[in-house]
Amino acid sequence: MSLKEILNLVWINIVENKFKVILTSLGIIVGAATIVIVIAIGLGGQRDVQEEFKNLNAGTVTISDNSNSSRSGSFSGGASPNFMKSGSQGGSRSNNRTGLSGSRNMPSGMMGGFPGAMPNTQQIKKTTFTNTDLEEITYFVDNISQIALMAKGSSTIQGGTLEDDLTTTIVGATEEYLEISNLNLLIGSFFDSISDEEKERVAVLGYDAALNIFGNIFDAYGSQININSKKYSVIGVLEQTGSVVSEITLDSAVYIPYQTAEKYVLGTNSSPQIVVLVDDVNKIETTIASLQQLLSEMYPTGNISVTDAGSQVAASQKSANTLSILLISVATVVFIVGGIGIMNVLFVSVKERTKEIGILKALGSSRKDILLQFLLEAMLISIFGGIVGVIVGYLLMPLVRLTGMSVIASTSGSIMALIFAIITGTIFGFYPAWQAANLKPIEALNYE
Amino acid sequence: MENLLTLKHLNKSYQIGTEQLQVLFDINLEVHAGDFIALLGPSGSGKSTLMNIIGCMDTADSGEYFLHDKAIHLADDTQMTKIRNQEIGFIFQKYQLISQYTVLQNVIMPLLIRGIPRKEAVKLAAEKLEMLGMADRLNHKPNELSGGQQQRVSIARALVGQPSILLADEPTGALDSKTGEEVLNLFQELNDMGNSIIMITHDPKVGQKAKRIVKIIDGRLYLE
User: pTM for the whole thing?
Assistant: First the structure.
């Protein structure tokens, strides 16, 4: 029998059993829609990661005090007193530095000298970085193009068109922070080192912060706001970035000079970070090692972590990938369930049409023809289910967006869903079709 | 006259549980081209089993079966399938039309299976259906037809492939006596046109319409 005529028979049967076909394909529809959405979420997640770190220079290294937690990547200073800052000068330090193998994955407890020299009862002390530290680092560590001190906290703001207090992130930073974080000014200027030294009460607003407080950017510039009930002049507004760096949503933060922040907003209990920009991405590892070495000497009793942008991006990427894998497993389960659904309906269909199969056999239909007829029927149903599923997936995407997840529709996702649908239909349709093809003609014909 | 069909010493038994039940004993039969044979026997006599073997739907345990010169008892499943399609025209008691196909689609099936293009198949089928007075019912579904009409469609389907032999299994069994009479007259006409027919029946009156009656009782043939 020609393939065209077999397809014609399949078509007659599908048209005669429209409702059953829709029921059968339901599982496939759900499966295909799931795949489409899963891939869209996966792509969305990857883009989110890229967006999130858009403002993070690849060469950024963050030094932060970790005394309140013991995350991996931190180390406690364990250097011998001989190498402490007060006791030695640059020469001895640089000698030590070259002997160290730089590694980003340095285990905690990296010992800078003689481990036995330190008493076991050592207490980890809180470290508060200052401008002196910046000078030390700039002096002793190579390959550093920019270095900034910053601390964050949150505070209430009044002013502009605000009726109630607005609580937002306050970032106290030195002027280099602007460049390290890839921030650009939309209007006005950033504060400089003089503002910092003078502890001037000036503020630069993130784009969203300006909109929230003043309603528009131009009203914000040159106005005054209250932070912690003290007046600040708004000297600039930043461009919109849409990204998050070191847990700071850049657009909604308010930026003030570091020492101003320390004096008026954050107090001495703040946890400042040092942000360093390495001039050559290939030298990040050695620079980190040098920084760790230096810091262990400066703060032997501290718990200080040194992390670079690359590892932060990698961690986020990894969690996005984990989500994708999880979703793909869900989609696989859905497809298997859908496939079993197809198989069930086809088994019933073979039973129902036993007589028809008997007649076709009596008329001389070969096994191959009957196998093909049922297999093609399963495939056609799954193609139908696949196409409908892809459409349903696209229709559901706006709903998924409502949950706050970002989704990106893609042609490859739709094609993948279709391929999966057809494979499922073929695999699960095969056994019932094979069963139909191997019915004995007399038994099939006399089946009631 | 050349033998169309020759059966020699056919035996057939079925395994029912642990018991071996023999249904056909040493069947010998010769059918010539142009014959119209009634295979007459009560239910359970083994006539359907014999019919299935002749129709290549079943195989005997022992003995020989020749259709023309072909040794059917040696044929494999694929060959039997092909012989069913090309040499045998089945007419069943319950018509056995495929309910979701139209009359025309039902009748062209044997030709499509054979690989004949649809256009040609439709032409041949339409000729047969017209001959049987069903020309205006081509696009009806079987359940829109009366029993007599359905049997005509099934006869058209049996004839369309120009088989060597028509096998009719109780062709009047599901019809009222008047319609049954018409179908039997039709069989006589078809036989006059040169078609060889073997008809199974339990009804001696129906058997009278055939040229030759072969009785089958308890799995044994009695030729008259």
Answer: 0.67
